[in-house]
Amino acid sequence: xxxxxxxxxxxxxxxxxxxxxxxxxxxxxxxxxxxxxxxxxxxxxxxxxxxxxxxxxxxxxxxxxxxxxxxxxxxxxxxxxxxxxxxxxxxxxxxxxxxxxxxxxxxxxxxxxxxxxxxxxxxxxxxxxxxxxxxxxxxxxxxxxxxxxxxxxxxxxxxxxxxxxxxxxxxxxxxxxxxxxxxxxxxxxxxxxxxxxxxxxxxxxxxxxxxxxxxxxxxxxxxxxxxxxxxxxxxxxxxxxxxxxxxxxxxxxxxxxxxxxxxxxxxxxxxxxxxxxxxxxxxxxxxxxxxxxxxxxxxxxxxxxxxxxxxxxxxxxxxxxxxxxxxxxxxxxxxxxxxxxxxxxxxxxxxxxxxxxxxxxxxxxxxxxxxxxxxxxxxxxxxxxxxxxxxxxxxxxxxx
Length: 400
What we know:
single chain; 7-stranded mixed beta sheet; 5-stranded mixed beta sheet; 34% helix; globular
């Protein structure tokens, strides 16, 4: 199991506020660190803390961890803060270095502004040190384009070409959130097109706990193979996307997360199943509540895109025998994201009378539009298509 004890979770929380004598952390960061410690007791663990618990727990178990990226220590979206600095002197302090006397080493570095050089080095490091969890983080997901030759020649194909195994993890921030075409998309479709023969894993976890279990599972997985993780931006601080302490002390990585509302999960009255991956789930969840369709629409998340979790997906799918509408929902344009790669898996489980449809942005040469108003209009249309126009408007009028 990838779960850890409550004591381990709390130990990581305690480390965040165990300041060295005379160390003066910035007041805003001190408040954040105090909140982290409380979260390891009370819950509402966010993405950054969940990741630190994964790293810290591995260190305490003797697994070396290495994390490198252009802003890895703080993280591009300031969610990690794995290395802290004295507010006055600039002295550095890494809380996860002081968990236990005999812990494994942690290496975390901000790299030079060259994805090609950095990823090539980390790939080689992961090959030569298979006992370690080696992670490379792109500042934005599309920055990995600068290392495409390394990805094509080594990450995705080295095992098939030379029998060379690597457990390298690529963390690629991804999210269609109205910020324009640059840095919105890590190009999920490109990685999925290179998937075959179990050459790598491709995942898009939607909760801190599932990300935690994924990283821990990767650290112990044998034989080694690369892992590509599409990490969030908006979800880093979305309260709905936090996890309870119990999610870390029990369970495993879940490649498919089914309906979380027990009343809906019974399946009896469900006529429409919305299947998605990543950030858009939280928009669908909020929209279902607004339209008062909890009894009619079920939400299913695909957390691992490759290898596709056939058994888990089919088991979840079979919970809704009365559903006639199956809808794949994605933020990305139709020619991007997972739609073209994933739809044949749906066809394998569809039953007579069930129809598969798509709800997402139209095909586009660009990863995203450049105007927020256009993005918002597209998102509104996406949600309307996902729910088939059913439900209630905000004014309360029936739209069936």
